[in-house]
Design a protein that fits this description.
Structural class: mainly beta
Number of strands: 21
CATH superfamily of the largest domain: Galactose-binding domain-like
Shape: elongated
CATH architecture of the largest domain: Sandwich
Distance between the termini: 9 Å
Helix content: under 10%
Strand content: over 45%
């Protein structure tokens, strides 16, 4: 006859099997691109026009002028500043850098179009604004696309930024590459650029282990209880319902479907000695 439950002696037979439910499949370090969001140098005025790059800008201005505008003028996509590739005339900017990881990458950037019809008195903030993206070894660059947006549905308070992803590029370690943006719109109102990043294809892929199986060697006529907890900083164990099982002398396995959002579980099995 079994002992009443409150007098059952328990012994721990198997302790602390930890199962992590998220595994990183791949990761990548970044490229050497700087100031992709045009936050440097930080401006005290709402608009500055540059024909030569200021200290800390990171980009080289080869033709024309670049206007850097703060959130006091219009809505940036990221941070507090964005760059319009038309100052008094259309501009072209580039940056040289290296990749620490060889492989396949894409260029991503946020684009808008100058919607300012009146504030600067130019009435030019209408129609389509176009830029071209080039990438590669300096002197051997490839056109990654020409992109256009209409100013018409946009306002300085709602720039309706669009994230653009270029075709993939394959790069090598420690080779100098150049990324260049060129405005193809004439005049003083052109395409607007922000949040330029380089992203490795397949970065941050994960595999979720949604079900695990916990096994132990059993003894005949012994009753077992499986317990778990998600942290080791507490002594509170949770009974795994439905796992009070009688040993057969063989290995016993219990499946557990781990809920989404729980990063790990620690398991143990208790022998309820009769």
């Amino acid at each position: 006859m079994r002992t009443p439950k409150d007098l059952v002696k328990t012994t721990s037979r198997t302790i602390l099997l930890v199962v992590s439910t998220w595994l990183t499949v791949s990761s990548a370090t970044g490229a050497g691109l700087i100031n992709g969001s045009f936050e440097a140098p930080m401006q005290s005025r709402y608009i500055e026009e540059y024909s030569a790059a200021p200290v800390g800008f990171g980009w080289t201005i080869t033709t024309g002028e670049v206007d850097v505008l703060t959130s006091d003028y219009w809505q940036p996509s990221s941070g507090n500043q964005s760059a319009e590739l038309n100052g008094t005339t259309a501009a072209s900017i580039y940056q040289d850098f290296t990749f620490s990881d060889a492989g396949t990458w894409t260029v991503k950037f946020d684009m808008s179009a100058n919607p300012d019809l009146f504030a600067r008195g130019d009435s030019s903030g209408s129609g389509f604004k176009t830029l071209r993206v080039d990438f590669g070894i300096p002197g051997l660059m490839t056109n990654l696309g020409t992109y256009s947006l209409d100013s018409a549905p946009r306002t300085v308070g709602d720039m309706r930024w669009v994230t653009i992803t270029t075709p993939e590029v394959v790069v090598s370690n420690s080779v100098l590459y150049r990324l260049q943006f060129t405005s193809l719109t004439q005049g003083i109102a052109g395409p607007v650029l922000d949040n330029v990043v380089l992203s490795r294809c397949g970065t941050y892929s994960t595999l979720r282990v949604s079900e695990v199986e916990f096994c132990w060697d059993s003894q005949p006529q012994h009753t077992y209880q499986v317990q778990y907890r998600s942290e080791l900083t507490t002594n509170s164990w949770v009974d795994f319902l439905g796992t009070n099982v009688v040993g057969t002398g063989a290995s016993i396995c219990v499946p557990d479907r781990v809920p989404a959002g729980q990063s790990q579980r620690f398991y143990r099995v208790i022998c309820l000695e009769q």
